[in-house]
Amino acid sequence: MCLGVPARIVAIADAGQMLAIAEILGERREINLSCIADPGEKLSERIGQWVLVHLGFALSRVEESDARVTLDLLRQVDEAEDGRGHLKASLLA
After folding, report:
1. 90: phi then psi, degrees, rounded to nearest 5
2. Confidence (pTM)
3. What is the CA radius of gyration of the chain?
4. How far is CA 10 from CA 5, 16, 52, 77, 82, in A?
5. How many CA atoms lie within 13 A of 27 on its CB side?
6. Tens digit of pLDDT for each residue in 22-54?
7. What separation in angstroms does the CA of 11 have from each of 43, 77, 79, 90?
8. CA distance between the termini of the chain
9. How far apart are CA 43 and CA 14, in angstroms?
10. Does the domain spanning 5-92 belong to CATH 3.40.50.450?
11. Which InterPro entries does UniProt cross-reference here (predicted)?
12. Alpha carbon distance 62, 9 (integer Å)
């Protein structure tokens, strides 16, 4: 099963390599934008956008409201499983 985790793009790390910094569950990670951006695109316009990230790649853009609903559901599942904190570790590994 694949799980895309909502993340917000907060900075561009390397435009030439199409790499950005995204905030995922309070952690900042480098992600690759090549699946959602065109070569030569001005990536700075992507800052602030929400994306679904899987294995370090942004796979699609999502609306902030949908991202927040998904994050809330993930937190609820984590709490119901009494694994507080384990969810973040497993999603960011």
Report:
1. -75, -35
2. 0.83
3. 13
4. 15, 17, 14, 26, 31
5. 13
6. 998 889 999 999 999 998 899 999 999 999 999
7. 9, 29, 30, 24
8. 16
9. 9
10. no
11. Hydgase_assmbl_chp_CS, Hydrogenase_HupF/HypC
12. 12
Asked if pLDDT for residue 86 goes beyond 70, the answer is no
DSSP output for 52-92 = EEETTEEEEEE-HHHHHHHHHHHHHHHHHTT-TTHHHHHHH
What is the distance between the alpha carbons of residues 50 and 3, in angstroms, rounded to a whole number? 15
Delimit the domains of the chain by residue range: 5-92
Locate 48 and state its tokens: 């602030």
31 bridge partner residues? 20
* Inter-residue contact 19 to 13 (CB < 8 Å): yes
